[in-house]
Automatic annotation (TrEMBL):
InterPro entries: Biotin_BS, Biotin_Carboxyl_Carrier/Decarb, Biotin_lipoyl, MCC_alpha_BT, Single_hybrid_motif
Domain Lipoyl-binding: 91-168
Domain of life: Bacteria
Name this protein carries in UniProt: Acetyl-CoA carboxylase biotin carboxyl carrier protein subunit
Species for this entry: Caldilinea aerophila
Keyword annotations from UniProtKB, A to Z: Biotin
SUPFAM superfamilies registered for this protein in UniProt: Single hybrid motif (SSF51230)
Amino acid sequence: MSRVVYFKIGDRVRSIQVTPAGDHFDVQVGERKFAIAAQQGELGRLDLYVDGRRRRVYVARQGDRVYVWLDGETYTLFKTDTLFQADRRRGARPGDDVRSSLEAAMPGKVLDVLVAEGDVVQRGDVLVLLEAMKMELRIQASQEGVVSKVWVRPGEVVERGQRLVEIT
């Protein structure tokens, strides 16, 4: 059974889908997929075999933080439960499919798309900038969730009612 985990790396929150597959895990981060096996060593050492290639990392945990040292860089990961809490507040149960599609209120041109698939958003976050009738419109998230689909690109002309972004 797959499990989705959310981690904050710097200012960006990413979703990671992890599926057990015998002696390894199939891991998907955005559009990228990896086969990962792990072998734990001493004092926080972890040998990860990513698509058959060994990567040595060192891991330390402190509260909700996980510190990962890889290739001379230290990364601080924060496990987040934002989506589960948001769904629970809306009365959804784990496993429920909670979606919200944001649509263009009027014809216009997409100036910028400020999110990518897999990003975690809060209610009110600006997702897309549209130009319509010489005005700049800020399309905001109507709920907390994960951007599951971005339907438009900068420069694209959209019609009234056209889907822009989907949040689950």
